[in-house]
Specification:
2 domains, Four Helix Bundle (Hemerythrin (Met), subunit A), globular, mainly alpha
């Protein structure tokens, strides 16, 4: 049976699953319009509730020194044709992986949920909807830990769950859905507790940074400070990267 060795132990994740995770990560990263802490992000944060960044240009703003031309919107800076091709590859990779997932005992709800979000992602990319595409990419990625648990990976699947929750906090705050962000934060402690249990051999300094980053993210959401939320979420992701790489090196 795929996902199991002859001795009944879990086997390594199939290449298609790794490719799907990588592809979704690339799409998500390409759809981030601005990095936290940039001058543009600060200007947007101070512009009175225009931090959504959903491909719409701030009204009336002009790019200095460009002869009065409007600054390109985040949506205009995205290579939509390239992202479309990546989404096509994701469908092909999923088609190759799905039989493996079924035979390995994957949860049918996870299969249906992932397929649904993958379809939404393709439609949102076709519509050139930056926010909708990024949300769908993260939602699709949130189902991957269910598949990763079927195999013997190097890092706990819950580490990806934690990342997806953190990203969903930022996405919900971007859409002014503070209640949704609070729900995500409420789910984090249980996920993080499992990570700490599963991440054997992790450095205390690495886990402590994540714990404090989660607390800081929670506090910024409670303060309803959109700009600081984006900064704190970015820091949390960087700390997750550090822990993930550390765990990968152990194998």
């Amino acid at each position: 049976m795929p996902g199991k060795t002859q001795a009944g132990q879990k086997s390594e994740p199939p290449g298609e699953l790794t490719q799907i995770q990588s592809g979704l990560e690339q799409i998500y990263a390409a759809l981030k319009p601005l990095q936290p802490g940039t001058a543009e992000q600060m200007q947007r944060s101070q512009g009175g509730g225009q931090g959504g960044g959903r491909g719409k240009q701030q009204g009336g703003q002009k790019e200095g020194g460009q002869g009065g031309k409007s600054a390109p919107s985040p949506s205009e800076q995205i290579d939509w044709a390239k992202l479309h091709q990546q989404s096509v590859r994701l469908h092909e990779q999923w088609n190759a992986f799905e039989p493996n997932a079924m035979k390995s005992g994957a949860n049918p709800d996870a299969i249906t949920g992932f397929e649904g979000q993958l379809n939404i992602l393709s439609n949102k990319l076709a519509e050139r909807d930056r926010y909708g595409s990024q949300l769908a990419a993260n939602n699709a990625a949130s189902f991957l830990p269910d598949f990763m648990e079927l195999y013997d990976g190097k890092a706990p699947p819950d580490l990806l769950r934690l990342r997806c929750l953190a990203r969903d906090v930022a996405l919900r705050v971007e859409a002014d859905d503070w209640a949704g962000a609070e729900r995500d934060l409420g789910a984090m402690p249980a996920v993080w507790s499992r990570v700490r249990t599963e991440a054997k051999g992790a450095k205390e300094s690495d886990t402590s940074k994540i714990q404090y980053a989660i607390t800081d993210l929670r506090d910024s959401v409670r303060a309803r400070d959109k700009f600081v939320v984006m900064l704190k979420e970015d820091i949390l992701e960087k700390n997750i990267d550090v822990l993930n790489k550390s765990l990968q090196r152990q194998f």
